[in-house]
Amino acid sequence: MKRGSWKTRFGFYLAAIGSAFGLGNLWRFPYVVGENGGGAFVLLYLFFALVIGMPLLIGELIIGKSTHRSILAATGSLVGPFRRYHIWIARASVLACLIVLSYYAVISGWVLHFSVQFFVGSFQPEVLLEKGRLEHLMSNGWLQMGLASVHLLLAVIIVLKGVQEGLEKWISAMMPIFAFLLIALVFKSLSLSSATAALRFLLYPDFSKLSLSSPLQAIGHVCFTLSVGFGTMVTFGSYLRDSDHVPTAGFRVTIVDSFLSIFAGLLLFPIVLEASNIPLTDPGLLFEALPRFLIQMPGGILFGMAFFICLYLAALGASIGLLEVIVSNVVDRVQLSRSWATWISGGSAFVLAILPALSSTVFKEAKIFGKSILENLDGFLINFFLPLIALGISWMVVRGVQKSEQHKLFVDPTRVESEAMFPHWRMALKYLVPAVIIIAFFLQTISFIKSLDLF
Ligand code: PHE
Fold first, then answer.
1. Does residue 318's CB lie within 6 angstroms of at least one atom of ligand 1?
2. Ligand 1 atom 10, closest CA
């Protein structure tokens, strides 16, 4: 099969960073850091991003570049005595795409709501004061459902029309504007009197604040934010040109994405601490804190409009990518036309989205471990399913791609250091990644048993 490839190296970076950067950085990172007590978790996260996330990201790109296929079809070209099990890892990652797409749509719907409110607020500020609050959204489950449906419908139409590539390029090109807005807001937020306390919270590592479940949470978040374990990076890798150096690509995507997460923390924590009455552990942290801050900032409404529109487009780009992975894998395997596959995938995400969308209203009482359905779905996927898939992917790269092929795709003969890095990367995937993930699961199990209060 002849595959297209990225026209320029920059095109690949924009698309890969575009997929990595999204709600994971701005919505999820700050509240998970809040939940896990700040600086020590940030350090753990950065450490795992380098020793787990980056090797896995490079591994996924290598599977794609070596097979020129998406993850499900790629498993057919892999080698090794256990290759028939690879398909299950690939299926799990496509399932992860579907689950994430469903509640990503709900959160994207929240972003859409704030984009519209800030837009309306730019000429009718009183509307924004009334509707630009998270409570307004949380008390209206049907509104959340409606917004999630609009979001999914948009993604389906874009994938059906086959214009996602053009659109993704457009969205990626907007990323620098978003980065600029983010940095400008960070400066503004760091001028608040709470900035010192926020910096201390975010950067000073107090390890006593970590819990037994923190390592697994950090690993899961690293995979989520780097889009590892979903098969997306395999697809991106399949479009890489022969001359593109995979480890450099993996390194740059990891660094840029991690920086953006830290920026999100620097933006949000001074605002949250200044307001003092927002719980740091709330999944609504971003939406609770940022609009309030923007509304009272001079010129903040226009800024807010630009910010939320950019964030919405980033979320739309990620959702299109997720839907695209599901559709291309379904079409590769099942006798279905592309348009049917798109409607069925989008429809399944819609059905799955009903629970998280109504989790703050109709299903308010349906709490598991004291948490809402949305939090449980997110927790199951990211703190359990994704680390398991990551374990599978590390195994699939090391065992499924011939060592000589790994070497060929990893090592760039013009760079001396890349030959030296090759054994380190393999060691990381072969021993470090599995060991760390298994230990993290073990610690999580102890924490779970302790929480049952049996003894
Ligand atoms: N990495 C994205 C984020 O941080 C989420 C995502 C996962 C997007 C997988 C695409 C594929 O928001």
1. yes
2. 318
